[in-house]
């Protein structure tokens, strides 16, 4: 393992041109507008998690197309008044798991909402309108010949509606919503940051789904290799694939963010190459209202896709406490 991407001094200024379609904003406005009148149908059912310090609720809400999406809401047993909520999105190929598996933010005294990932978690199916389309194995090319049918249109919409669902619980302060996630979860975090205008903090770790044009040529690691394998076989669709994915680029969505952010990056990360992370970081908030002093990135020079791991969780806990104190 070695550093393979641009040197750090070049990464720090790396802000590539992004091939945004002319109707990028209209596409997302129309996508979300289609769901404005769709009832969230949120259900919070208490479950026995075997823990004495955290209360857990089994959550169901209506995501893209009204499809049911599952999740967990964890709350500290001892709580007084509405709490800031951290909405967490998950890595590629994973779901919400058992109640006790993902609980850091509730242990720290926050409400913690964990969104299951449609089609990837065991409990949220993907009602897939692209069934029958050609695709490579996995999710990255599912419906990729049409942005309206692309898998991540459904998943990003779920992410926006997860924020809305979290806000409905009486123990959650709807004015203090934070989003976070690692890898795919980091890419979804950036999508939520660009599509939800009133978040108070954004924490993407080693984010996937950024700067597709570079990612799909600089690494042959999965999941990006799903795209290269698809285009290798279906050469005639290369331009169509690139155009579809441009609507879902985390770097483009990050431009539209409005909240302070803390990124992390591993300089030996071959799954989410550093230049793709820096593309999102350096574009972050440039179309929104983010003071550049409200952007931080923590660099782990000798780490791969694990990034800063538990050490970075300590950084996030301290940073978020500062952000929430400032936002009050």
TrEMBL record:
Highest taxon in the source lineage: Bacteria
> Where would I find the Acetyl xylan esterase domain in this sequence?
1-321
The protein depicted here goes by the name Acetylxylan esterase
- The species is Streptomyces poriferorum
Cite the source lineage.
Answer: Bacteria, Bacillati, Actinomycetota, Actinomycetes, Kitasatosporales
């Amino acid at each position: 393992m070695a550093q393979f991407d641009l040197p750090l001094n070049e990464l720090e200024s790396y802000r590539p041109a992004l091939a945004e379609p002319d109707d990028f904003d209209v596409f997302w406005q129309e996508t979300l507008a289609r769901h404005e009148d769709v009832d969230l149908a949120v259900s919070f059912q208490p479950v026995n998690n075997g823990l004495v310090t955290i209360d857990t609720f089994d959550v169901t809400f209506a995501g893209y197309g009204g499809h049911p999406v599952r999740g967990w809401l964890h709350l500290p047993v001892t709580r007084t008044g509405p709490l800031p909520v951290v909405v967490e999105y998950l890595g590629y190929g994973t779901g919400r798991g058992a109640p006790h598996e993902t609980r850091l933010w509730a242990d720290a005294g926050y409400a913690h909402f964990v969104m299951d990932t449609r089609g990837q978690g065991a409990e949220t199916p993907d009602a897939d309108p692209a069934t029958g389309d050609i695709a490579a194995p996995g999710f990255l090319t599912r419906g990729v010949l049409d942005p309206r049918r692309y898998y991540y249109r459904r998943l990003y919409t779920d992410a926006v509606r997860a924020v809305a669902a979290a806000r409905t619980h009486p123990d959650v302060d709807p004015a203090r919503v934070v989003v976070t996630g690692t890898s795919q979860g980091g890419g979804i975090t950036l999508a939520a940051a660009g599509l939800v205008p009133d978040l108070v903090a954004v924490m993407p770790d080693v984010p996937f789904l950024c700067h597709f044009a570079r990612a799909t040529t600089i690494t042959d690691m999965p999941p990006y290799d799903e795209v290269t394998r698809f285009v290798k076989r279906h050469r005639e669709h290369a331009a169509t694939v690139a155009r579809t994915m441009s609507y879902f680029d985390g770097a483009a969505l990050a431009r539209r963010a409005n909240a302070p952010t803390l990124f992390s990056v591993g300089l030996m990360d071959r799954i989410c190459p550093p230049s793709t992370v820096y593309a999102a970081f350096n574009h972050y908030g440039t179309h929104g209202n983010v003071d550049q002093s409200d952007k931080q990135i923590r660099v782990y020079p000798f780490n791969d896709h694990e990034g800063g791991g538990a050490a970075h969780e300590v950084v996030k806990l301290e940073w978020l406490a500062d952000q929430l104190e400032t936002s009050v």
